[in-house]
Amino acid sequence: MGDNESEYDFEKPAHRVEVSSFYIGQYPVTQRLWQAVMGNNPSEFQGERRPVEQVSWDDTQFFIEKLNSETGKTFRLPTEAQWEYAARGGRYSQGYTYSGSDKLKQVGWYNENSNGETHDVGLLLANELDIYDLSGNVWEWCEDDYHRNYAGALEDGSAWIDMPRGEGRVLRGGGYYFEAFGCRPTYRNGDHPGVCSSGVGFRLVLPCQSVG
């Protein structure tokens, strides 16, 4: 996890993490799903198959609580380690620059091909795990607090939470308005958990033991 060759200190130091088996959404949460669960659609760029956006980290927690109540499951946000593992392609990783390709236009919507807006999920190529839109389209909230680097990071794949609330939560993946460098699987960002943006959404994970 991480990249010692990066010019950004927040991607360092690279370190080994053991990640337990988990399920992760093939796509970011869509506006259709958000509408079905929450009864509203806060998104700036409307479209049932587009990723929901204009949702804060706090909003995702309300959504997840309601979804779990309705389904009896234990969905949650991915940990940062789970997100990066999935974005890299897991055990099938080919070491691509982006999630699924060395050519970002094949797999992600970003500032050079998005026309300044989000797009329906799943229109471009999937990565090695058959997961879509992990590079570009919308930034995705993770469970972890945002740290300036990986010094002292956990090695068990769990969420790294040890800061006062409001210091920031992790965002991954880049967005439709961002440059290519921010869409790499190792690039990290963070923001206050109450912040909303047209470029920020999320996807869900489910522990394997929760399925049955």
Model description:
The chain is an alpha+beta fold. It has a single domain (9-210), classed as paralog of FGE (formylglycine-generating enzyme) (Alpha-Beta Complex). Helix content is 17%, strand content 11%. The radius of gyration is 16 Å and the shape is globular. The two termini are 30 Å apart. The model has no long low-confidence stretch (mean pLDDT 94).
Helix-strand layout with pairing:
Layout: E1 22-24, H1 31-38, H2 57-71, H3 80-88, H4 104-107, E2 139-145, E3 169-172, E4 188-191, E5 200-201, E6 205-207
Parallel strand pairs: 2-5
Antiparallel strand pairs: 1-6, 2-3, 3-4
In short:
It is built from four helices and six strands; from the N terminus they run βααααβββββ. The protein has 212 residues and is α+β, with helices and mostly antiparallel strands.
